[in-house]
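Consider the following assembly input.
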Amino acid sequence: MQLDLFAPEAKRRHALPFKSQLLKWIGNKQRFAHEIVSYFPASFGTYYEPFLGSAAVLGTLSPRRAVGSDVFTPLIDIWKRLSESPDQLKQWYEERSEQFSAGEKVAGYERIKASYNASPNAADLLFLCRSCYGGVVRFRKADGYMSTPCGVHKPISPDSFSRRADEWYRRTRGAQFRELDYQEAMKLPRSGDLVYCDPPYTHSQAILYGAQEFDLSCLFDAIARCKKRGVFVALSIDGTKKSGAHVCDLDIPAGLFEREAFVNCGRSMLRRFQMNGQTLESELVADRLLLTY
Ligand SMILES: C[S@@+](CC[C@H](N)C(=O)[O-])C[C@H]1O[C@@H](n2cnc3c(N)ncnc32)[C@H](O)[C@@H]1O
C-alpha cells in the first residue's frame, strides 16, 4: 500500500520526541528523529539502520525488529554491550567517571584518551564521547588518533547514565547490532523492510568519522538495488546550505527517489522531488529526507 505522504499531519506515523542521548555523536539526529520517523511507511518488516552512529532514529522509533550497524568497531561494541549486558556498560561509565573526578579533570580525561588511543575500545570511547569538547569525537586522518580535548561541561553522573542505559536497553530490545560496512548491511533487507541511511556524505564528515573517502554514488547504487527488491529507503542529507540546488549538486540518479521531505526547520514540509524549485522551500536551511516510496 502506498502511504499518502501528503496526508494531514494527524494521519502520519507519530513518534514522540526522545531527547535523552546515550552517546554524544557528531551529526546525530536526536533533536528531530521523531520528525524523520513521521515520514516512515505506516507498516514495514524489519528496520535497518546501516549508519548507526548514536542510533537516534532507531532509539526514537523503537522498532519490534531491527538491525543497527556501523563500520566503526568501538562504536558498535558499545551497542552490542548495551544489548548483551547493560550493567557492564554502566560499570564502564562509572569506572571512568570516578577516574575523571578523582583528581584534576583534564588530566583524568587525557589518561582515558591515551588509553583509547593506545588501543581503541568501546569502554573508553563511551566516556570520551560524553566528556569531550562539544561532544565532537574527532579522529586524525592519518592514523585514527582521537584528538578532541576535554570538554568544559560536566559529564552526566553515573546515576543519570544508568537511567539512560535502562531506557535505551528497553527501546532497542528488538535490535541486533552488527559491525558491517553499509554495502554489506544493505544486502540484508527484503521486500517490505525499511532502511534509513544517514551517511557521512561530505568529505569533511568522512574525515570526522575516521572513514576513508565516502562515495555517494555507491550508496545510490545500493539504494537502487534495495528499491528494486521492494525495500523502502529513506536517506538523510544534511541541510547545511541555503539552497534547494544543493541536493541537485549531489547528482542524484533520476527516478530513484519519489519524495523529498524537509525536517528540522521548525515545521516539517514535503514537496514532490521532481518539483525542483525556486519555491519558498529552497530558501530554508533544513535537513532533507529523500524517500524511495
Ligand atoms: C552521520 S553519522 C550517523 C549519525 C546517526 N544518524 C546519529 O543520529 O547519531 C554517520 C555514521 O556512519 C558511519 N560510517 C561511515 N562510513 C561507513 C560505512 N562505509 N559503512 C557503515 N557505516 C559507516 C560512521 O561511523 C558514523 O557513525
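The first strand starts at residue 47 and ends at 49. Ask yourself how this observation constrains the way the partners meet.
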